[in-house]
Design brief:
With 265 residues, the protein is of the alpha/beta class. The protein contains nine helices and ten strands. 35% of the residues lie in helices and 25% in strands. The longest helix is centred in the N-terminal third of the chain and has 18 residues.
């Protein structure tokens, strides 16, 4: 049954029917991901559904209350607070694939000094710029293009975003040379040395659209990161979304969502 279902869900004809039957299939089978034969992520992947008013409202609620936003790496505030950098100077923090500004509001409210660098898709960048201007925010910088300027960061954070980035290794090369900590959270890895670097999965749990993402080979990924002078400090299962599963992808050893923390040697 599992093999038949995997076969049907990976077909292109299912993509056309997903908006109509996707929710029902997910509700019944609870399948989040299915393997594809794709060699690279589609160009139009992970579309956003946001506007200035709603994003501004989210930001203001975080700034004016004690509410803790959704954070894919739940220990991020504590990690920054215990770092040597935090004790000496302003923290520089890159949020790559940031989405909304709730994490920025939360960290700014709880840390004595932080310079927050934001990067996401074009539309999200535009919304973040408008919020920065309307709220007269000084410690927020929106980065549209990493090619135009050289940056250095104390913390580089991919909060459940790395797997959606085409050619993510090229992106990492640009920002790791002058960075101290790298946080990869809520990202799918498998632990089979014999398999290739990345397998592209189709994400099925969202009824409005289909997303595509990498399932990453843990051993090859950490070897790549080590080349830039980083050591793995911790590897933990991510349970921010407790019911997420890979039950129909059993051939991949120890496949799961993981958090990886690296520190420059």
């Amino acid at each position: 049954m599992r093999l038949i279902l995997n076969f049907l869900l990976k077909l292109n004809i299912y993509n056309k029917l997903h908006k109509y039957i996707g929710f029902k299939i997910f509700k019944y089978f609870k399948i989040f991901f299915v393997e594809t034969d794709l060699k690279e992520l589609p160009l139009l992947n992970h579309p956003i559904n946001a506007n200035f008013e709603s994003e501004l409202d989210k930001f203001k609620k975080i700034k004016s209350s004690n509410v803790r936003p959704f954070i894919s790496y739940s220990h991020i505030l504590d990690l920054i607070r215990i770092s040597e950098k935090y004790k000496r100077k302003q923290i520089t923090f890159l949020d790559f694939g940031a989405g909304n500004l709730e994490l920025f509001g939360y960290l700014s409210k709880n840390l004595k000094s932080i310079k927050y660098f934001y990067h996401d898709q074009k539309d999200y960048n535009s919304i973040a710029e408008k919020i920065k201007k309307s709220e007269k925010i000084k410690n927020l910088e929106i980065i549209k293009d990493f090619q135009k300027k050289s940056y250095s960061f104390d913390f580089v954070y991919f909060g459940g975003s790395l797997q959606y980035i085409n050619n993510y290794k090229d992106t990492l090369k640009k920002i790791l040379k002058k960075s101290k900590f790298l946080i990869i959270s809520q990202t799918p890895f498998h632990f089979d040395k014999q398999l290739k670097d990345e397998i592209i999965l189709k994400q099925l749990n969202l009824s409005n659209n289909l997303n595509y993402l990498y399932l990453i080979n843990y051993y090859r990924f950490t070897k790549f990161i080590n080349k830039y002078g980083f050591n793995l400090v911790s590897l933990t299962n991510n349970r921010v979304i407790k019911f997420i599963n890979f039950k129909n992808l059993k051939k991949y050893k120890n496949i799961d969502m993981y958090d990886l923390l690296f520190e420059k040697k």
